[in-house]
Amino acid sequence: MTRGCPAKSKESLSGLIERVTFFNEESGFVVLRVKVTGRRDLLTLVGTTVSANAGEWVKAEGVWIRDRDHGLQFKADRLICTPPTNLEGIEKYLASGMIKGIGPVYAKKMVSKFGETIFDIIESASAKLESIEGIGPGRRRQIKDAWQEQKAIRKIMVFLHSNGVSTSRAVRIYKIYGELI
Q: What are the structural domains of the chain?
């Protein structure tokens, strides 16, 4: 049960996703712990999205609520996640498990070898990944395929958002139609 604060106008916030505390694949409901510039403690952000991963940058619009069981939270009615741009975020993002074939060990190796260009390497020169010990043709294909799937999901979500579709509705549309739209 949620008890809201007095009616407030919508606010915006953005920050680095430190941890995905909960994610429901059916509904897209997510609970995130986010580091926001200018705030010492992590904030709890709740909303819906197709995917969210540690290391990603999140932009959200919504209102602050006080949940009786979980305390102060930012309840987003619009939530957009984008890949990170700094090395720490990139490593955390790759290690999050969203890309099959990459865990914390390989994420560290990949970022150490390719730095900020790793996303471009995966995208357009994935054969270079085989220069990393432990990555052969099979794992490279697995990484490349998972990367393409995530890219397709993001592209669809951006399209739906730009056409005024709410995040929760966009999640439902994606779950039903997938990449057909």
A: 2-84 (2.40.50.140)
